[in-house]
Design goal:
By secondary structure, the protein is α/β, with parallel strands linked by helices. It has helices spanning about 5-15, 20-25, 35-45, 55-60, 65-85, 130-140, 160-170, 185-200, 205-215, 230-245, 260-280, 315-320, 325-330; strands at about 90-105, 105-115, 120-125, 145-150, 155, 170-175, 250-255, 280-285, 300-305, 305-315. Helix 5 (about 65-85) crosses helix 11 (about 260-280) and helix 9 packs across helix 10 (about 230-245). The relative contact order is 0.13. Bound molecules: adenosine-5'-diphosphate and magnesium ion (MG). Adenosine-5'-diphosphate binds next to helix 6.
Amino acid sequence: MSQEHAQDRKRIQEEAQPLPIGARLVQNQCVTPQQLQQALTQQAKQGSNKESLIGKTLIEMGYISHPALLECLFHQLTRERIAYQIDPEATSVIRFVNVEKTLDGRKVLDDLNLEIPANKITAIIGISGGGKSVTLKHMVGLMKPDKGTVWVGDQPVSRLSGRQLNAVRRRFSLLFQEGALFDSLNVTDNVAFPLREKTDLSEQEILARVETTLQEVNLAGMGHKFPDELSGGMKKRAALARALITQPEIILLDEPTAGLDPIIENAIHYLICDTYMRTRYTIVCISHAVPAIFDWCHHVIVLHRGRVLASGPSLDIRNSTDPTIKQFISGDLDGPIQVI
Ligand SMILES: Nc1ncnc2c1ncn2[C@@H]1O[C@H](COP(=O)(O)OP(=O)(O)O)[C@@H](O)[C@H]1O
Ligand SMILES: [Mg+2]
């Protein structure tokens, strides 16, 4: 490796180091150090020291616009994705080893082996009926394999039951394909639901956390609305708030942009990016939004007929010369995969 090349790599790796958002905004000259200091002081006055809300405070103080903040986070994610492509070393948090599952006499997962890198965004893509949702259900033990093992960290989740399984499940939040808000509950009660079910927090603490989480997904003040009063994008935000409120380690999103128009789809991608930057959770997102999703994740897994067709940094998969993968990305009818 030439010295210049080595220096480039070092610079890329340095720029990709996770920093608190405030420090990152200063480093990228989106706000001045003085503005950041004033925003931190303002937050302290309001009794909040949540680093994750610093962007919001800076917007409220007029130091940065919301689109500019999101753009800055997106650029940072892009840097981190490039660094991940150069050096895709990451510990895996979920591992499927030789997993088989037959449903209705059909082998849906066929000797599936996959790894999900920890604290990264992974997209799972593939044609409809390829076993993506079934794979997600195996990660949280909602479905059990006929053969093979699903590991979450050092826990064989596919062999656990009862309290042990519940302990693993608490590390997850799952946002189902349908989004599934309770129609009879307003947004506050929907978002508060997992805390009321699973924790002993006081009602006051719960409502405070709901308000913060609604702010994080840009739904501040919308708590009194009912699902049928919300737009498609707002419903997704509310569902995401409900997934975030338990502060999980791993978020599983099943087609978060299905059925939404392109502008809202884009807004949801920014929201996922924003969530990742603030929390650094592991995010696994099933998506049909190809090729857009490639810009929003570190790692891509292409699932086809219950097997992994390709797995790697999104930039590598996007540039793949494999005809089947190219067909996935381009959506061509003509190619190795025959759908009609
Ligand atoms: N609970 C179930 N019972 C029977 N068949 C199922 C069940 N869930 C999924 N399947 C079948 O498994 C295959 C993969 O489904 P799924 O994982 O939902 O696909 P996708 O990749 O579109 O998310 C499909 O053929 C589907 O009909
Ligand atoms: Mg599905």
